[in-house]
Each structure stands twice: as C-alpha cells, then as structure tokens.
Amino acid sequence: MMLDEGPETVQLYPAVRHTTGRGNIERVPGPDPVELEGVWIFAEDASESSSSQGQRLLTRYRLRSRQFPAGAWSKITWNGDDYDVVGEPKHIPGSPRLEHWLVTLQARTPRPVPDG
Which of 4, 13, 83, 98 has its CB surrounded by the most CB atoms within 10 Å? Predict the structure, then answer.
C-alpha cells in the first residue's frame, strides 16, 4: 500500500518527563530513538525572517506515517537535521488502507537564506 512505502526513514525521539533544576516538570525529547521506515515527508512552507544574525530560512514539513508512537514535544532526526513536532500529531481514521498520522515538523535550527 502506498502509505506503507514512503521513501524516507526518520529517527523519532518520543517525549519524556524531565524535572528541571527548579523542580518543574517539563516534556522534552527522550534519549532513545525509534526508527520509522517508509514515511512520506513533504515541504509545507518556508518563511524568511531577519535577525541580528542575518536572514534565516525556517521550513516546515508534513510527515505522513502509518504509525506515530509519540506526540508534541518529540523530536525527529531526518537527513542529519533535527526537527520539532509542532502541536499534536493528527490521527486520520479510516479503513486499514487509509488510516494514518499527519505530523507537522519544524527545523530546530533555521538555515541561512541562500544567495541569489
């Protein structure tokens, strides 16, 4: 089935509870990744921003996967770059052929805007 045969493999770091030095509990990406194979990743949008460090390009992607054993505050590593999960992943119910997850990803580190 097409949803099972995506060309991408990602490392997923599900969120875990972490206690800060002040005793506050927060959710952060855990240390143990889960490999997700056969996922689809599509560019969603890109936005440029200006900062004291120069112009930066921030791109969002949409990940489609048959399964997604994580939620918000998780991290994805794809093609050597780290991405945050933006908001809660959306479960798309349906028949076994159509059921899947949609996840919005955002680069953790904005890239410089290319010349030209």
Answer: 83
Task: Using alpha carbons, list the distances in angstroms from residue 37 to 4, 30, 71, 74.
Answer: 8, 19, 18, 17
- Extract the tokens encoding 94: 């349906």
Mapped onto helix, strand or coil, the DSSP state of residue 115 is: coil
The Cα–Cα gap between 111 and 109 comes to 6
Q: What is the CATH number of the domain that holds 11?
A: 2.40.10
Per the CB < 8 A criterion, the answer to whether 10 and 36 are in contact is yes
User: For residue 64, what are the contacts with CB-CB under 8 A and spacing of at least 6?
Assistant: 3, 6, 39, 40, 41, 42, 100, 101, 102, 103
Is the torsion defined by CA of 68, 91, 73, 41 positive or negative? positive
What share of residues in the chain are helix, strand, coil (percent, to 5)?
A: 5, 60, 35
User: How does pLDDT run across 19-30, given as a tens digit for each residue?
Assistant: 999 999 999 999
For residue range 56-68, list pLDDT tens digits in order. Answer: 667 889 999 999 9
Structural domains counted in the chain: 1
